[in-house]
Amino acid sequence: QVHVVESGGGLVQAGGSLRLSCLISMRAFRGYAMGWLRQAPGKEREFVAAISWSGGITDYADSVKGRFTISRDNAKNSVYLQMNSLEPEDTAVYYCAADKDVSAFRSIATIARRMRGYWGQGTQVTVSS
Fold first, then answer.
1. CA-CA distances (angstroms) from residue 9 to 31, 81, 92, 93?
2. Nearest to 89 by CA among 19, 8, 15
3. Model pLDDT for residues 4-58, shown as the tens digit of each residue
4. End-to-end distance of the chain based on CA atoms, in angstroms?
5. In Å, how far are 29, 48, 58, 63, 99 from 86, measured between CA atoms?
6. 77-87: per-residue pLDDT in tens?
7. Of 122, 124, 38, 128, the residue nearest 87 (C-alpha)
8. Which residues in 23-51 are b (16+ Cβ under 10 Å) and which e?
9. Angle ∠(9,12,17) on CA atoms, nearest 5
10. What average pLDDT does the structure give for the chain?
11. Phi and psi dihedrals of 10, rounded to 5?
């Protein structure tokens, strides 16, 4: 049984910060990269950030580079997203996911296949101007 539980979202003013957390409790995903995607109303799901199993490789979407930081704690099966200098354009539901490599997160189709049936509920982030 897979549990994917995202948390930490909320309402924040532009320029503020939030820290998202995600627990993926599935033994089959051990050794996998983990990452975050987001989906704004009326838009497709998009890549935000990803991190390798060791934490030594990270990747960020250009729109969040320099503002967001991804990290993980393998002992807790968890991945985190520290979001600073938030902008109204960051408003979305944020989802976490796992895949074999960081590079896989650049393909939403690839992640969707991997996570089919396993997606969590996501966590809503709303940034007011």
1. 26, 10, 10, 8
2. 15
3. 999 999 999 999 999 999 999 877 788 899 999 999 999 999 999 999 999 999 9
4. 40
5. 30, 13, 20, 11, 27
6. 999 999 999 99
7. 128
8. bbeeeebeebbbbbbbeeeeeebebbbbb
9. 75
10. 94
11. 170, -170
| Of the candidates 62, 60, 67, the residue with the CA atom closest to the CA atom of residue 17 | 67
**Residue 2's pLDDT is what?**
62
Residue 92 backbone phi and psi in degrees, to 5: 180, 170
User: Got the DSSP string for 50-91?
Assistant: EE-SSS--EEE-TTTTTTEEEEEEGGGTEEEEEE-S--GGG-
